[in-house]
Amino acid sequence: MFALKNTHSLLGMRALPLMGVKARSFHYSRTALAVKEVMSATDFNKDISKDKLAFVDFYATWCGPCKAMSPFIEKFSETYKDVKFYKVDVDKLTDLSTEFGVSAMPTFVLIKDGDVVSKVIGANPNAVHNLLIRATRNES
After folding, report:
1. What are the Thioredoxin domain coordinates in residue numbering (predicted)?
2. What would the pLDDT profile of 31-76 be if each residue is shown by its tens digit?
3. Which CATH number applies to 27-139?
4. Where are the domains of the chain?
5. How many CA atoms lie within 13 Å of 52's alpha carbon, on the beta-carbon side?
6. Residue 55 three-state SS
């Protein structure tokens, strides 16, 4: 039988934070690069004014459901090439979150020609997928 000695020292260990590592709520991959992280409201407004269809993921780094949705959003960004995908950290860009009426995370907003046309609140991959299917079908 195997017994651990000094288990109290193992249980008492804490993970040390990594200095200089930027926390991201989605995986680093070629696909993830298709989802642009918004750094300023000015740049975002400039970008979406040029996009025919834009999909915006309002998230928080501490939000478990937001993290659970990240792989789905990455996959959708790979599938729907005619839609521009953005991620907005609600804690960093509170004014932008307020402007779009974000009250819960995650919130997903579809913007067509600069106007909000649809919104999904909550971690519901099927609802998001259906939203994207309808939006791209109407574009064809």
Report:
1. 17-138
2. 445 899 999 999 999 999 899 999 999 999 999 999 999 999 999 9
3. 3.40.30.10
4. 27-139
5. 9
6. strand
